[in-house]
Structure formats: structure tokens, C-alpha cells
Write a structure and sequence with these properties.
five-stranded mixed beta sheet, alpha/beta, about 200 residues
Amino acid sequence: MANLLPYFKKGVIEAGCDEAGRGCLAGPVYAAAVILPVDFNHSVLNDSKQLSEKKRYQVREYILENAIEWAVGVCSAQEVDQHNVLNASIISMQKALSQLKVGFEHIIIDGNKFKPYGTIPYETIVKGDGKYFSIAAASVLAKTYRDDYMLELHEKYPEYNWKRNKGYPTKIHRAAIKEFGISPFHRKTFRLLDKQLKLEF
């Protein structure tokens, strides 16, 4: 059981941010921003990668019911190719922050890279999704909402098996790219094949 902290900076309204999908070959990057009550607590909530799929969706319901506010931001595969995946991750987090109606005064972000969001102070925290409730909550929302979207895409492109790999670089996914070529949702700037055989775009 994780022993997460309620906030980084005491006495201010704090938004936690995290993203999902940076390492994928296909699909968008999703990010979430979450503002939680100071007394928020959950015995299971942790970095989404540490939770089973079933647990993630159970925890998501609790977050949605108990968060002061939350929002999701998205950067498409085309935006990932245009801006690079790190910048797309930051852009998607800032898109999520821009949708929050509650006036937050501080931002905490999972990882070690961010860009100023207006004049609001922020702190980057390596492995923050395993340290702070709001970042862990953002991790769960970003991951589950991205998974939902990849399941929708799977219905249109079942050959890539996105219902299982969610766009990540599995052997089956790469074999499908080799056999069928790329979809409109693949990231052209990523190494899509193990030996990077020539792909026709």
C-alpha cells in the first residue's frame, strides 16, 4: 500500500498533473490535471502503472466522485510528430490545466520537465505519481481515458491489437505494422519496426 502525501505546498490550492502514452507507437498522449481536497485519502491509489486495470477503473470512479475538479488534455499522434513527445506531453498537461475552473495557486508535475504555465509556480517531482495523491490521481485518469480511446480505435483498426497493447511497442504490434503498414494514428517520427525496415508513408 502506498503512503502518499496530500500536498507539496501547504495552504494553497494545488493541481497535480501527469500524462500517459509517451512510449507508444500509436495514438495520442493524454494528460490529466486534478485538484483534490486536502483530506483526500484512498488506500489503493498509487502510480497507475502499479495498479491492475480493474483497480485503475475502480479508483477512477472514486477520484471522479471526490475530486474538487479534474480535466483531461490530449495531443494527437500528429501533434507528437510535430512537437516531439516531450513537448506534446507538456502541451497536453497545459491543455488539461487550462480547463480547470477552480483558481489553483500551485502545480505539481510528475517527472523532471515542464514549461511555465502563466505565472503560477510549479514543482516537477520525479516519480511524483508514487508520492502525491493529486499526481497519482492524474496518472490514473490519463491512463484510463487514454485506454478508453485506444479501445475505440481498436474497433476501426483491429489488426494492430490495440485493445491489448494500447499502442505500445509489443512484438504483435510491430509485426502488424510490418504486415499492414501504418494507420493514420501511428507516430511517424517513432521507430515503428525493430530493424526500421522502410515504411511507405
